[in-house]
Every structure is written in C-alpha cells, then in structure tokens.
Design a protein that fits this description.
The chain has 390 residues and is mainly beta. The protein has 5 helices and 24 strands. The radius of gyration is 23 Å and the shape is globular.
C-alpha cells in the first residue's frame, strides 16, 4: 500500500473482465482439533536455516523424544487416526496419532492451542487450487513477495489497490498459520506470492483472523468490488496510496515516505503516516495516525518487545509529547523466524500542527529510539497539506 494512485489502464480493465473467480466456498470451515480424525495433513517446507531442526513436535512412535527429521518427510501426507488430551494434564495440549500414507508408519504429534507446527490441512490446498488456479482476483495488498534466493526476500509493488492479479498456481507454503501459497502474476507479467489460510484449521487461535483468504483477496467482480480506486488527491511531491471501501464509505491514504526507520532490511522499527476520510473524494476533514511496526529475528513470543510499552514519547523541537499506543497486535512467524509487533498513534489537530512546524522530531517506543529525517518532515507536510479539504 505504498504507491501513488492512478486510474486503471485499459490493459488492467481487460485483465479484470476475463475468467472471474468464485467467492470462497462454504466448504472452507474451521475444524476444531476434536474433529480431525480422518483429516489429511501435508508436511510443509521450512526455511533453510530451520531444516536441521526437523519437525520438533512430531515424533516416530518408537522414538517419542526425538524430533522428526526434515528431509525424509517434507511433502509427505499423514492421516489423523486419534486425538486425545495430553497425559501431561496441561490445558490446550493434545496428543495426535498419525499414519504416513504410502508406508503406514506411525507417528505422534503434540498440538498446542489447536495447532501442530509444520503441517497443513491438505484439503485446503487442493480445494483452493481447484477453485482459483487460472482465475483472476483482486488483491487488497500493494505488494506481493518473491524470493531471489533461499534467504533473500523481495517485494513486487503493484500500481493500485485493489490490484488485479492472476492465480498461476496454489501450492503449500511454509507456515502453519498461512499454509496456502497463491502464486500470482500481475498484468505487467511479474510473478510473486501471497500466503494465506483458507479455513483457519490448524492455525493459531490468536493469529487465525489475520491470514484468512478474505483479508487479502476479493473476487474479481465487474459489477463492483468492496474496494474502489478513489478520486485522485491533489498532486504533490511524495507518493500517496489511497483505497476506498464502499461498505464503510471510508478512504484510507498512506504516505509512501517512511517517517522514521531503524535497523536493516525488514528488521527494526518503522513509522508510517496514515489518514482516513469519509467518502471517496476529499470533502471532509481527515483523521491522521502514525502506524508503528517492529520486526526482529526470532520465533519466540517471549521476545515481544512492546507488549507493555503503552506510550510513545515524541520530542518535537525538544518539547515532549506523549501519545498512547492503540490497536496493539503481534505476529510470530516461526517458519521465517520473525516476530512482528504493530500499533497506531492517533494524532489530534494540535499534534499535527506541532509536527507541521517542527524542525526536529525524535521519539522513543519502549527502549527503541528513532528520529524523523528532514525528508520525512517535508513528506509529512506534503501529506497533511494534500489531505486538507480546499
């Protein structure tokens, strides 16, 4: 969601009018763990750095204390033959007996919170492939991912939101929370992927809602989709992405220029300016926020850094301004070894005026300090000016 808005070209309109996809079928229903008997699961690939650890919570029946090795099992399919509460007596822990298709080898797995790490429901992948392969969808996100190597992840930026994409294939992904990988092609011919959950089965209860299909995609509907391209904002120096939701009648605008950044690559803290206004044209006063995002290399929820950090302190030309962190949430991506945390800061008119006049802005969230660059201050002034009704 970080690209300036423009009207869809004729190529995109033609792309949208071909082979429209169905809505997600009602057969994609979350199955509680007590109903897993007979369900088939596939062993997911893992990142290169994690392969040596294998599938740590799945074991051979004859060797219950040794992790299942990665290479002999990746891509294999198992069927659930029994589900029982753990003999440890711990709440939310289950013992799952599995049988490997083709060899009839018996395995046992430990499930925590209705999830076995490292596997995915095979029916979700197969049904999604049957329904969506070769079809066109509208993507709610501005970017799709791609890998240039095992460890180098890049992003393909699309020209609009919602973005028209074609589903080239549907394959297993790497994470039990988002185990269905949609291989996508843009109208310009670039390929990438988005990982989602179709049913939410075997996903963490805390994270299930964040990765469901309809969080990322809309069916390609020539009669009108949920998201529309809003009227262009006044021209300016910096890129702004806008997205109009016709059901809420709200337009979201996101400044492409990052206000502040720490760390390298995907890691560290980022602050981004966001605004919302009523309608699909700027006739009403916008509400401004600063979006916070933090990512570090880890796969442990115990590594959360800002769970108790309820305030961000800004120093605007040396004067402190305390802002409450709202909408805090986090995501632990075990397969990618990422822990991400998010929050928002709501800005009052007075806060905005202080930022518009500022020569320097520093800040701290928890123990992480940051500073707005001169370009960021200039970009915020441009952003706020273009989102003021004239």
């Amino acid at each position: 969601m970080r690209k300036s808005v423009r009207l869809l070209p004729i190529l995109v309109l033609l792309f949208l009018q071909t082979t429209n996809a169905q809505s997600p079928p009602t057969s994609f229903q979350t199955k509680p763990i007590t109903q897993w008997i007979g369900e088939r699961f596939i062993f997911l690939e893992r990142a290169e750095r994690l392969k040596e650890y294998g599938y740590q919570l799945i074991h051979r029946k004859k060797d219950k204390y040794k992790s299942l090795p990665y290479q002999p099992y990746v891509g294999k399919v198992v069927k659930v033959v029994s589900v029982a509460p753990s003999s440890s007596g711990l709440s939310g822990v289950w013992n799952i007996d599995l049988i490997v298709e083709g060899t009839n080898e018996q395995l046992t797995a430990e499930a925590f919170g209705n999830q076995i790490q490292g596997v995915a429901p095979l029916s979700d992948i197969e049904k999604a492939r049957e329904i969506y392969k070769g079809k066109n969808l509208l993507l709610k996100e501005q970017t799709i991912s791609k890998y240039t190597s095992e460890t180098s992840r890049e992003y393909v930026t699309l020209d609009s939101v919602p973005a028209p994409v074609q589903v080239v294939d549907v394959v297993p992904a790497w994470d039990a929370n988002s185990p269905v990988r949609f291989i996508l092609r843009t109208p310009s011919g670039q390929d990438g992927f988005v990982d989602v959950s179709m049913s939410g089965t075997n996903a963490s209860e805390e994270l299930r809602a964040y990765f469901l299909f309809d969080k990322f995609f809309l069916p390609s509907d020539p009669k009108g989709s949920v998201y529309k391209t809003p009227a262009p904002l006044p021209s300016g120096k910096y890129g702004i992405t806008t997205k109009y939701d016709r059901f809420t009648n709200i337009t979201e605008a996101v400044l492409q220029e990052t206000l502040a950044k720490t760390g390298e690559g995907v890691y560290g803290l980022r602050l981004t300016a966001v605004a919302y206004f009523e309608g699909n044209e700027l006739h009403s006063k916008a509400k401004f926020q600063i979006a916070l995002s933090w990512t570090k290399s880890s796969k442990l929820a115990s590594d959360l850094k800002f769970r108790e950090a309820e305030q961000v302190i800004l120093l605007i030309d040396g004067e402190p301004l305390s802002l409450s962190v709202r909408n805090y949430k986090y995501h632990v991506a075990e397969i990618m070894s990422w822990v991400s945390e998010y929050g928002t800061l709501e800005l009052s008119d007075g806060d905005i005026n202080k930022l518009l006049k500022a020569k320097t802005v520093e800040g701290r969230w928890g123990d992480v300090e940051f500073r707005f660059t001169d370009a960021a201050l200039d970009a915020f002034n441009d952003f706020a000016g273009r989102l003021t009704p004239r």
